UniProtKB/TrEMBL annotation:
Biased composition (Basic and acidic residues): 12-22
Residue numbers spanned by region Disordered: 1-22
Organism, scientific name: Micrococcus endophyticus
Record-linked SUPFAM superfamilies: Bet v1-like
Top-level lineage group: Bacteria
Pfam families: Polyketide_cyc2
UniProt name for this protein: Uncharacterized protein YndB with AHSA1/START domain
């Protein structure tokens, strides 16, 4: 199958989905949940992640963390943007392979009184038709579902602290 078998694709500059909202939890609590891959299955709004081993906390560009999808496949996620407490982005790949062409980004702005969280999915560099089909189904609603789950966890942790 090639991309000719796909529906009309948006222009590369339009292959981005974003969602954001305010979270009533300290920015540090929110960022800690995002940067610790072992916590990601708890808030994944796509219900795609099964698990990630503990001890993979992201600290820098160049880090690679591995997650296991619900279908039992491991993904190596290559960190391409990182600013402690504010921004993290990664590109998924097969373990030992090159990234597929998507980018997942999280941005957190705020302080101990709460924060704004933005989640972005970019897929302009994606070429695999099967992955493009999935990318076409990933929009602001799916991203917002992840933010909402993340917010519920962060707000609960903030109340307990």
């Amino acid at each position: 199958m090639d991309t000719a078998d796909l529906p009309d694709l948006p222009a590369p500059e339009d292959r981005t989905a974003t969602a954001s909202r305010r979270v009533e939890a300290p920015a540090g609590v929110v960022f800690e949940l995002i940067s610790d891959p072992s916590r990601q299955p708890e808030w994944d709004g796509n219900d795609n992640l099964a698990q990630a081993e503990a001890g993979q906390r992201v600290t820098a560009v160049g880090d690679v963390f591995v997650t296991t999808l619900r279908k039992g496949v491991d993904r190596a996620n290559h960190v391409v943007e990182f600013e402690e407490g504010r921004r993290i982005a990664w590109k998924p790949a097969e373990v030992g392979g090159e990234p597929f062409g998507q980018l997942w980004r999280w941005e957190v702005e705020g302080d101990d009184g709460g924060c704004r969280v933005a989640h972005t999915y970019e897929w302009a560099q994606l070429t695999d038709p099967q992955r493009i089909r999935r990318a076409l189904r990933t929009g602001p609603e799916q991203l917002r579902a992840s933010i909402d789950r993340l917010a519920a966890l962060a707000e609960a942790e903030a109340r307990e602290a």
